[in-house]
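Hi there,

I know you've been waiting on this one. I reran it after we fixed the sequence typo, so this is the corrected version. Both the input and the resulting structure follow.
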Amino acid sequence: MMIIVAILLVYGMRTTPVTVGQTEKIYHEYAKKYEGIADQTLIEALQQEKEQFDKLRQRQAELTEKWKKKEVSNEQYASISAMIDHMLQNEAGLTRAIEQADTLVNWSEAHDLQLFFTDDSIGRYLFENASMDQYRGAVLLFAVIVLLSGIFPGERKNEMQNMLLCTKNGRRPLFVAKYVLGVVIACIVSGGFTVIHLFSASKMYDFSLWKVPLQSIRQAQVIDVQLSVRGYLVWTSVMQMMGVVCAAVSFLSISVRMKNRLYAVLVGAVLFVLPVVISGAGLSNIFDLWFAKVFLFGTQTLKQGFGEQIGYLILLVAVASVFTAGAWRAYQRKRRAR
């Protein structure tokens, strides 16, 4: 079983950033070269880079005039002009860097908070990666369900519950112990996935820069809470772990009534994993009040703010509490039936 979980963990990793085209490549080069405080010095440095392209255009215009005057041959004109055109294609990457720097400096001056200029692809990884977050979440939940599926169904299948309910410690203490075990397992698995996720991200992006203000990332400038990128990741990871714990507790409460472990896994997959998969496919509105949004705390915070996300977590806690109360009553009825 642990081998299967390990395979799922590895399969859920994303180890390479997405880069597309020459513009993206050139932008990454400028972002790496000028990484640092976003201020007027940065703007001036990037403008100096832009002047090089202005000189290229001027040179191209002069070359065209010489060609018209027959001062250069057709072959020379075609060769040099093609080379200049190729070099000018890199300007789009610089333009993107300049626009990002302007936005950062203007935001920094307006909010009196020093921001940093860095590659904004980390923003896409953190805030525009909902489908991958949902996929990783579905794998995580399935691993938790498989690991928890034997806690209650096993004892019912072997009629151990009848004997356990007759013992001194076989009622509430054992019931609570099983839930505590489930919570611990859920925390360990969720924590493991988080470590893998952050390790994967650290391979793509300089982890030391994650201490910079969160608003240094373009997508996060709508957030009015002052946090570092690292602090934001810790917050979302804790929220996600609590959501996974709620899902685990709810699944345990459902599995109390089941004798067959495989049946418990199937029911858990339908109730908890399938909604996450469907949400990842773009049908999130169907399961907005269920566990499908547990793995979207990062992206949803940009749209709804911290308050609504905390409210959503409180709702999940309430759902898990209702399930737990129902499971305890079912457990008690089994004892009275004895």
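Quick highlight: The first strand starts at residue 36 and ends at 37.

Best,
R. S.
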